[in-house]
Write a structure and sequence with these properties.
By secondary structure, the protein is of the alpha/beta class. 37% of the residues lie in helices and 12% in strands. The chain is built from 11 helices and 9 strands. The chain has helices at 36-42, 49-54, 59-68, 81-86, 93-102, 126-134, 156-167, 189-197, 222-241, 258-270, 282-287; strands at 12-15, 45-48, 74-77, 113-116, 142-145, 171-172, 174-176, 213-217, 247-251. The strands form 2 sheets. Strands 3-2-1-9-8-7 form a 6-stranded parallel β-sheet. Strand 1 (12-15), helix 1 and strand 2 form a beta-alpha-beta unit. Helix 9 packs across helix 10. It starts with 11 loop residues before the first strand and ends with a helix.
């Protein structure tokens, strides 16, 4: 499987999903059908969390996605949890091959497939990851997200991981949860739920291949988000100037404000780096009619 020769934008921007009822009247139209095509008018990438929980979708579902997504759009699906968490990457060759084959209709629109590893997947299990990466299909981008704390101590475990990723031209996912954990949740149930779900891991900024993947997990407080995102402006700009193509995925605790936060982050980056303008949200267009 190879990617089509499509000119890449300087940055891919997206969120964890492309449909959310809370986005109606803002990113998505207030009424009628809304989905991937509306999302893709503004954002050019998406995390594929569905595949982590449910595995490979039906062939007709994938075909529908292929029909709706423009050629410049990128799906960054996660490997199914059955492979990464239940089997911990062991004896998965056939299942992995079927998963990749099933995504065939989207071959020219696949961004880095993400291997999100369990929180206790540590240095001792790196050989299983190395075996998977050694058999990774040529031309298919890959990114690995680790959550075991020993990979953040700059010792043997992290050095071994980074060497493996660099040798295989694989990106290391950078999960930035600093904003999310900037304040105690207190009585805020949504913030507490998000803090309980996301791992509180340090942020190590390192690009090991050509598509740095940043997952920026925001807060409800706009000032906190602005402060935590500020250092990314310089770093993303540097990677773009180096000829790399970063992927930036933006979350908020309940993802209701994620589209607006993503737009704000993009606008701030565009002040420093030449980026194409984002299209208006569907809700913005509707409001302009009155």
């Amino acid at each position: 499987m190879t990617l089509a020769e499509t000119p890449q934008p300087p940055l891919y921007l997206g969120m964890a999903m492309w449909a959310n009822n809370d986005w109606r009247g803002s990113l998505l139209p207030a009424h009628g059908d809304a989905g991937l095509a509306d999302y893709a008018r503004v954002f050019n990438a998406v995390e594929g969390n569905t595949t982590f929980y449910s595995g490979l979708p039906k062939a007709e579902t994938i075909a529908a996605w292929a029909a709706q997504a423009p050629s410049t759009f990128r799906f960054c699906f996660k490997l199914p949890g059955q492979l990464t968490h239940a089997k911990r990457l062991r004896e998965i060759d056939d299942e992995f091959a079927r998963f990749v084959e099933g995504l065939g209709p989207l071959a020219d629109r696949l961004g880095p497939l993400m291997v999100q590893l369990p929180r206790d997947f540590g240095h001792a299990e790196l050989p299983a990851l190395a075996q998977l990466l050694s058999r990774w299909p040529p031309g298919l981008p890959c990114a690995v997200e680790v959550r075991e704390l020993e990979f953040f101590h700059k010792g043997l475990a992290e050095q071994s991981l980074n060497r493996l990723l660099i040798s295989q031209d694989v990106d290391r996912v950078m999960l930035d949860v600093r904003a999310l954990f900037a304040t105690p949740a207190g009585l805020d149930k949504k913030l507490a739920a998000a803090q309980g779900e996301k791992p509180k891991v340090p942020l190590h900024v390192l690009s090991t291949a050509v598509n740095p993947v940043v997952r920026f997990i925001g807060h409800f407080d706009e000032a906190i988000n602005a402060a935590r995102f500020a250092p990314w402006i310089e770093r993303l700009g540097l990677w773009i100037k180096q000829g790399k193509t970063p992927f930036l995925f933006v979350h908020t605790p309940d993802n209701r404000q994620a589209p607006e936060l993503a737009r704000q982050c993009y606008s701030r980056l565009a002040e420093r780096v030449a980026l194409p303008p984002l299209a208006e949200f569907a809700g913005d267009r509707q409001e302009s009619l009155f």
